[in-house]
Amino acid sequence: MDLLEPAGLALVIVAGVILIVIIFFFSYFNTLMLIAAFTYPNAKIKAIGSPFIKRSRLRKLVDSGTREEFVEALRSEGYAISSAETDMKGVENAVNRELFDTLKETLFALPKGAKPFFDAYMWRYDAEAIKRVIRAKKTHKKMNPDEISIYSLDRKVIEDMVEAETVEDAKACLQGTKFQKAAEEKDDFSFESAVERVVFEKINESASAVDGDVANKIRRFVGALTDIVNIKTVLRAKEMGLSGEIAMKSLFSEGREIAEWRLKNMAEAADISAAIAELSGTAYGEALKGLSTAEDAEKALDAALLRLSGEIAMENSLDIGPSIFFFVSKEIEARNIRAVNLAIEYGMSWEDIEDLLVMEVDA
Fold first, then answer.
1. What is the distance between the alpha carbons of residues 336 and 52, in angstroms, rounded to a whole number?
2. Among 19, 193, 210, 363, whose Cα sits 20 to 30 Å from the Cα of 126?
3. What pTM did the predictor assign?
4. Contacts for 10 with CB less than 8 Å, ≥ 6 apart
5. Direct distance between the N- and C-terminal alpha carbons of the chain, in angstroms, rounded to an integer
6. Is the Cβ–Cβ distance between 160 and 173 less than 8 Å?
7. DSSP letter at 257?
8. In degrees to the nearest 10, what's the CA dihedral of 123, 124, 126, 131?
9. Closest C-alpha among 143, 323, 97, 123 to residue 217
10. What is the domain count for the chain?
11. Is 185 helix (H, G, I), strand (E, B) or coil?
12. Is residue 19 part of a domain?
């Protein structure tokens, strides 16, 4: 058949269209598969939500007035609080438990290619558990190991730490764990920083273990998270009057925007205000402008992390973005609820605790 004849020309056109469709399909195949893999976890995340990062919802929660109404408001948003957990300590334990369980369930629902990062992120619960036990040991405060959330650490390690007679004995229980080297640090600041460093090394490694389709998005978040933790570490060191050398020893690898030289200048600054001034010209410098205490700076940095994770969620709404935002926002929501729990207990008003909250302005 002559291809220049109408029938032959039509055949060429049809073949060309089919070829274009095939090329188009395969070029977007990975994207379609990525979206499909996140469809269920994203639907689950949307159903759960993080209502108590919204200013209007938090204010309404504070204004609930009575503890009974406060607890019912939490229950209506999925927080499983039993009738034996309605006092201040019970609510705190229930909220902590619910947060931990929710994040674990969400991680389980995520596609395999994204799990290494979220698995590493959950190691932070092990680090926090260790720090809590050591702090309690120093103040002779009794702890119930069943109320301590751990992710990958053997529960017997925490039980043995709680039962240990001294701080040194408690640290010795970390032998044979991933936190073994951190236990060698003598002063509190260096010890806690070393414990956190174990986690951040794991988080940084995880960015190379995830699928290529989500790796750059995770690296963006991890870079910002590292910046924020490094800044917090320097400011805490300044507030404690520690030397620049100790502060620098306690830092992690460079993050996304803040280079080591800038952190060194912060560590050697005269005070917190001067340290913050060293961030001039960066996104963090703008977020911290006018602040002079480590506590205020930490709250502003948490708000910056919430905004960034929200941006990543909007830009990558069909794949990993909502998961990153969910993990950040649920942790901030739990902290907000704990602050409101305190306010309810002592009859505090919205004006009394507003500055303690990290929130989105929705209305």
1. 7
2. 210
3. 0.90
4. none
5. 70
6. yes
7. S
8. 160
9. 323
10. 1
11. coil
12. yes
Cβ count within 10 A of residue 87: 13
Euclidean distance between CA atoms 312 and 204, whole angstroms: 18
Tokens linked to 306 = 């919430």
CA–CA dist 297, 57 (Å, integer): 24
CATH of the domain at 326: 1.10.132.50
| 198 within some domain | no
Burial grade of 282 (CB within 10 A; 0-12, 13-18, 19 or more)? middle
Domain that holds residue 13: 1-109+316-363
Q: Please list the alpha-helical segments (H only) found in 112-211.
A: 115-138, 155-163, 167-172, 188-206
Residue 72 forms part of a structural domain: yes
Q: Based on C-alpha coordinates, what's the Rg of the chain?
A: 25
How many residues make up the chain in this entry?
Answer: 363
Only one residue has tokens 């070829």, namely: 19
28-60 CB burial, b ≥16 within 10 A, e <16:
eeeeeebeebbeebbebbeeeebbbbbeebbee
Classify residue 48: in a domain, yes or no. yes
Q: Digits of tens for pLDDT over the chain (363 positions)?
A: 454 466 555 555 655 556 555 555 545 556 777 888 899 999 999 999 999 999 999 999 999 889 999 999 999 999 999 999 999 999 999 999 999 999 999 999 999 999 999 999 999 999 999 999 999 999 999 999 999 999 999 999 999 999 999 999 999 999 999 999 999 998 999 999 999 999 999 999 999 999 999 999 999 999 999 999 999 999 999 999 999 999 999 988 888 999 999 999 999 999 999 999 999 999 999 999 999 999 999 999 999 999 999 999 999 999 999 999 999 999 999 999 999 999 999 999 999 999 999 998 764
Tokens of 160: 């043995």
